[in-house]
Design goal:
By secondary structure, the chain is an alpha/beta fold. The chain has an eight-stranded antiparallel sheet with strand order 3-2-4-1-10-9-11-14. The protein has a six-stranded antiparallel sheet with strand order 5-6-7-8-12-13. α10 (321-336) runs antiparallel to α18, α17 crosses α20 and α18 (497-511) packs parallel to α20. The radius of gyration is 26 Å and the shape is globular.
Length: 629
């Protein structure tokens, strides 16, 4: 969600800026733009600010800057996911300010600024700036910051931004430049990620190290409240107290981000590719795990997991979206196998309600990117309540979530481009099951022999997933039916209820079919009123202790003329017949079966979306990495 790239160099930096935007496209956006300082590359000739903006893809922006010959050695660029104001060129970043009373900012702009995040008090600031004569050309909260910086400018851009952010309430990552300082970009972050890239006589800003892949691998991770000043061949960082930091305070780290374009290969979309990468992703996530011990989760600063695990008496899981459903699945494991009370909270709700803190709880955050704004805020809220035992299950080792948690387990899903998460979800489940085993051993509820037996089952998961993926042709036939529907119900019981929730989420995300999921036992408490011949009902039917109860729920649907689509394990005695479409799962996998059962649901949503002609990898209104509240 929203991407920033900035640079100060002695070469034409526009190709680097737009290439960085291309590497951030997977995060989701609906407009993009670039602004440069047009002084000659040696800085001896005067010049002003110039920009190009588009509501098309970055590829079109590349053509636009080439045709308009936009060049400069200092520049900023942005991909925007609309929050304030519709996706339109006048709302696209970068935003300019030309001072009070000036509307023709394209010709005489003196401040250029890009911003990720949300400024909560933008309306009040807009009124104050309008009273000073500033004219607004967009509906965005970002334009407020540009004018605010201009209003404070008195010859030093760093000081102007420093003064401006004192008035901001909300979350932001900012990159800004001024026409009077041709080789300078200043940045600031609070609640939204921003990193510094150190090059050879050039420096960079970005919201994600991925944007700088192939340009520099020397990365400085800015902390909450930091400001950074980039100039030719030098930079410095100031913390939230205004203290200029030493290099040791914000060390340069070597980060090998993926620099090549991700190839689709034989697949039609990235989502399909990522669904089929799950066997490998699970294998990579388990690579090197010889036995399940608490030390698998030791922190990056040497924090010992076994001490934490032995002391805790509760687990609190904080997550959003798909990650929340992985946490809901883990609740069944943690309570059923490890014998520890577990609560799962929607991160965006948890921080805004009064809760009863437990200093002996293990706070677990789950996030693909490790930068999810609501989950980070919920983590910090829990820490502020005295819950300092923190652990994250995350796919990005360099993320804020990993840096801010005491303990971590890094999944190895690899880069996930499709907005609808697939392999990130199943690898989160794998990491959470390992956590369950480690907690269970720490508490004496799981023996080492039992843990080893479970781990052996986990090592078989990649092969079992291959067998499930072979069911794709049968799922395609289901998708042909679903493509003509506008509503669907998903049912599951016990540990498979969260999998039904995830299946419904996937269908609505990319096919735009309204879908809801319920515990199957809740049918008679309301949802059964919706069932008729036009309401497909997807049922997850593993061969477990709740099977007979589930069969009764299935009959309730059939008696009302509903059409069932059942994912059934072997030996369930659920057969294909009129109004009952059955796909037979290759094998029953016990407590690990959610990892297998979710895959046909991913395939169902994918092929339904393809049949309906939607933009599978970039569904409308959604972004990959939700870095604003």
């Amino acid at each position: 969600m929203c991407g920033i790239v900035g640079a100060v160099s002695t070469r034409n930096i526009v190709p680097v800026l737009v290439q960085g935007l291309q590497r951030l496209e997977y995060r989701g956006y609906d407009s993009c733009g670039v602004a440069v300082h047009e002084s000659s590359l040696d800085g001896r000739q005067p010049g002003g600010l110039r920009r190009a903006r588009s509501t098309a893809r970055v590829a079109e922006l590349v053509e636009q800057v080439a045709s308009e010959q936009v060049q400069g050695a200092t520049g900023i660029a942005h991909t925007r996911w609309a929050t304030h104001g519709a996706p339109a060129v006048h709302n696209a970043h970068p935003h300019f300010s030309a001072g009070p009373g000036v509307a023709d900012v394209q010709a005489v702009g003196r401040v250029a600024l890009v911003h990720n995040g949300i400024i909560e008090n933008h309306e009040a600031l807009r009124r104050e700036l309008q009273a000073k004569g500033y004219q607004f050309l967009s509906q965005t909260d970002t334009e407020v910051i540009a004018h605010l910086v201009d209003s404070h400018y008195d010859g030093d851009l760093f000081t102007a931004l420093q003064q401006a952010i004192k008035s901001l309430r909300g979350a932001y990552a900012i990159a800004v430049m001024h026409k009077d300082e041709p080789h300078r970009v200043v940045g600031a972050r609070a609640g939204s990620p921003l990193i510094l890239g150190v090059g050879n006589n050039e420096n960079f800003l970005a919201s994600d190290a991925m944007a700088l892949a192939g340009v520099t691998d020397q990365i400085v991770y800015l902390a909450e409240g930091d400001m950074v000043d980039l100039q030719i061949g030098r930079y410095w960082v100031v913390d939230h107290n205004g203290k200029t930091l030493e290099a040791a305070d914000r060390p340069v780290k070597t980060v090998h981000a993926h620099s090549g374009a991700v190839e689709l290969g034989p697949y039609r979309h990235y989502m399909q590719k990522e669904i089929f990468e799950q066997p490998r992703a699970i294998a990579d996530t388990l690579e090197g795990v010889q036995s399940v011990v608490p030390e698998l989760f030791d922190g990056i600063e040497g924090d010992a997991a076994w001490r934490v695990f032995k002391d805790i008496d509760e687990v609190l899981i904080l997550a959003c979206g798909t990650s929340y459903y992985s946490g809901c699945t883990a609740k069944y494991w943690i309570e059923g196998l490890a014998g520890i009370r577990c609560n799962v909270e929607v991160a965006s709700e948890y921080r805004y309600r009064k809760s009863v803190p437990n200093p002996k709880a293990l706070v677990v955050t789950i996030s693909q990117s490790g930068e999810t704004a609501d989950t980070l805020a919920a983590l910090r809220h829990a820490q502020s309540l005295g819950m300092t035992n923190t652990l994250t299950i995350c796919n990005v080792a360099t993320s804020a979530m990993v840096r801010e948690c005491k303990l971590s387990y890094i999944t190895r899903a690899g880069m996930e481009i499709g907005v609808a998460s697939t392999k990130a979800f199943t690898t989160q489940l794998a990491g959470l099951f390992l956590l369950t085993l480690a907690l269970g051993q720490s508490k004496g509820h799981i023996t080492e022999a039992q843990s080893d037996a479970y781990l052996e089952k986990m090592r078989h998961l990649p092969l079992a997933l291959q067998a499930v993926l072979a069911l794709e042709p049968q799922v395609v036939s289901w998708a042909e039916d679903f493509a003509r529907k506008e509503n669907a119900l998903f049912l599951g019981r016990g540990i498979h209820y969260p999998i039904a929730l995830e299946g419904a989420l996937k269908l609505k995300e990319i096919s735009y079919i309204h879908a809801e999921a319920y515990p199957a036992g809740e049918l008679k408490h309301g949802p059964l009123a919706l069932v008729d011949s036009e309401m497909p009902v997807v049922t997850v039917a593993p061969n477990d202790e709740l099977l007979e109860k589930l069969k009764s729920n299935v009959q309730e649907v059939r008696a009302r003329g509903g059409v069932l689509y059942v994912l059934a394990d072997a030996n369930t005695n659920i057969e294909n017949e009129e109004g009952m479409h059955v796909i037979r799962m290759p094998e029953h996998y016990g407590v690990l079966s959610p990892i297998l059962h979710v895959v046909p649901l991913q395939l169902l949503s994918y092929h339904t979306a393809v049949a309906r002609g939607t933009d599978v990898d970039k569904p409308r209104n959604l972004a990959k990495s939700v870095t604003v509240e």
